Amino acid sequence: MKYKFEKTAEDTYKLTYKEKEFTIKSSVKAIKELQGLVSKARVNMINDLAENGKSIKTLTIEVKENGKTYYDNSNVKELEKVYQEEATVNYFNDKSVQLFGMELQELLNDIELVTADEVQEFTTQLVSCLSGKDLIPTK
């Protein structure tokens, strides 16, 4: 294995890879931040739309067929997805700098994680450590 997460105490985890070792503490603050990513992304999207003189309603397509009106919100959903992905990337970059002294992509490169599956597994374990969920074996 290229890296290892271990639970070392009640709310403390350790990431080791190569000859490097980092301590990660779970916290209520991190849980709240993770849970707030979707709403933060939506607020950012609404603010950006407003700055450009638009609203969510302007992204909705109204279609009239057979005397009925349908609303297509696919543009809204797609834009929300983009903003959520951006908020998630920004959160993990900031958290990575705070914990490991490097942005997430630098960390992934340093550990030599290259496939999408490897990155997904790593980030899932990192979220587990940040939130204190016991997916990580105890030392």
Q: Spans with pLDDT under 50 lasting ≥5 residues?
A: none
Overall radius of gyration: 20 Å
Q: What is the N-to-C order of secondary-structure elements (H for helix, E for strand)?
A: EEEHHHEEHHH
The share of residues in helices is 55-70%
How does this structure look, described?
- The protein is α+β, with helices and mostly antiparallel strands and 139 residues long.
- Among the domains are: 1-32, no CATH class; 36-99, no CATH class.
- 56% of the residues lie in helices and 21% in strands.
- The protein is built from six helices and five strands, in the order βββαααββααα.
- The protein has helices at residues 28-35, 37-51, 56-59, 74-100, 104-111, 116-131, and strands at residues 3-9, 12-17, 20-25, 61-65, 68-72.
- The strands form two sheets. It has a three-stranded antiparallel β-sheet, with helices on one face. A two-stranded antiparallel ribbon has the order 4-5.
- A hairpin with a 2-residue loop joins β1 (3-9) and β2.
- α2 (37-51) crosses α4.
Task: Describe this protein with a few key phrases.
139 residues, alpha+beta, three-stranded antiparallel sheet, two-stranded antiparallel sheet, 5 strands
Could you give the topology of this structure?
Layout (H helix, E strand, L loop, with lengths): L2 E7 L2 E6 L2 E6 L2 H8 L1 H15 L4 H4 L1 E5 L2 E5 L1 H27 L3 H8 L4 H16 L8
Antiparallel strand pairs: 1-2, 2-3, 4-5
